[in-house]
Automatic annotation (TrEMBL), chains A, B:
It holds the Pfam family cNMP_binding. InterPro entries: cNMP-bd_dom (IPR000595), cNMP-bd_dom_sf (IPR018490), HTH_CRP (IPR012318), RmlC-like_jellyroll (IPR014710), WH-like_DNA-bd_sf (IPR036388), WH_DNA-bd_sf (IPR036390). Signal peptide: none annotated. It comes from Pelagimonas phthalicica. The keyword Ion transport does not apply. This is cAMP receptor protein. Transmembrane segments: none annotated. Gene3D superfamilies: Jelly Rolls, Winged helix-like DNA-binding domain superfamily/Winged helix DNA-binding domain. The gene is crp_2. The keyword Transferase does not apply.
Length: 227, 227
């Protein structure tokens, strides 16, 4: 890992919770692994062994229902992490993870604790912070799934993406539409209908390319349909 | 609080994580409060101050969306707790809580730590355990909302309730159908349709009374629709 990348990561929510020395120590022992698109990173129900921290690319967290249907829980990018609690306590992964683009994931062994002072205590606090952060994210997602329509969830997602992209009016979706549909809790055909519903407010899309003609119109739509 | 109740509670997931002495100490300082149906227990966005542990009755955890629509996140009963992380760290409640039946809730102040040995460390581990437990529950809920139909979620709920009731074929729903609809992520009219869909497999309901004529038929339906 380059010193630059380590620096970037240290600003992420996990390492921000740790003293710099413990941070450096963990990173120095960590194993970065590269995955091709579609590669399995870990499987629900198996020993987690490590905390996984995404360095680049996109990762899909998902669960398989009893019927074998896939429920996308989250899409993760650089500085996002998962399996924190399981890695700390020696438990199993609560979801499977798959690379949806070529990606690099840093594997951190939380049980091989070094001689850093009060390392266990600091790690526990950091893991609690992350668990609380994930819990809040999942609660927000349950809220969205229960009270918003698919078109409203898509609108929210596009506004967030627009802001993350620094206000570009044309951008590429970070992953395929079938994954976006799963993430937003829709069938692919419902996602197509949701995109069609946004056409009158200036959103058009072709494959992964999306353009937003008038952001204020899209925001107005978001507010009007929420009201 | 009666010694019996304290004993029952000590078997719940929170206190199981704590040494008996710390358990007793926390319980001795805790404040039980009674709430009438519809009373507010705490509000999303306000200082949490305490960990809340349900002693009896039913509590609804919910969020209000931007449009003022209510998303029920969970329904809680005796031995269930919430606001653990916020109480430990002095943060805000991530959801509102309301009594949906008359209920008693024990308020535990995690910051007024007694002289018990390594109290903070034990509390942190217990809170992490609970956060992880809630996270898993929310992930399971996201999974259900994304891959199951309303009728499938209702079927799963009825099977769980049947088992919790010790196999009774006729029982009362613990709260009103409008709350059940919110919990399962449906509009009340969709819940009525879901109940109607279960009629051919022997489920009938009138107000809060539900009867299941043939449990094996309902289980078969659950499996057939999941396949």
């Amino acid at each position: 890992m380059t010193p630059h990348l380590a620096q970037v990561l240290a600003k992420g929510p996990l390492f921000q919770q740790l003293p710099p020395k413990l941070c450096q120590c963990l990173i120095s022992k960590a194993q970065p692994r590269s995955y091709g698109r579609g590669a399995v990173i870990c499987l629900q129900g198996e020993q987690a062994r490590t905390l996984k921290l995404v360095l680049d690319g996109w990762v899909k967290l998902y669960r398989l229902s009893g019927s074998g249907e896939e429920a996308v829980l989250a899409t993760l990018q650089a500085a996002d992490s998962f399996d924190e609690v399981a890695a700390l306590q020696g438990g199993i992964s609560q979801a499977s993870a798959e690379a949806v683009s070529p990606c690099t994931v840093l594997h951190l062994d939380l049980q091989a604790i070094c001689a850093c002072e009060r390392a266990k205590e600091h790690l526990q606090a950091a893991v609690l912070h992350m668990a609380s952060h994930h819990l809040d994210g999942m609660m927000a997602q349950v809220e969205g799934l229960k009270v918003q329509t698919g078109a409203q969830r898509l609108t929210r997602y596009l506004i967030d993406l627009y802001e993350a992209e620094g206000g570009a009016i044309e951008f590429e979706l970070p992953f395929e539409k079938v994954i976006l549909a799963g993430k937003l809790g829709m069938k692919p055909e419902s996602l197509s209908r949701a995109f069609a519903r946004l056409k009158p407010v200036g959103v058009s899309s072709s494959h992964r390319l999306v353009s937003i003609r008038d952001m204020s119109k899209l925001r107005a739509y978001a507010e009007a349909t929420a009201a």
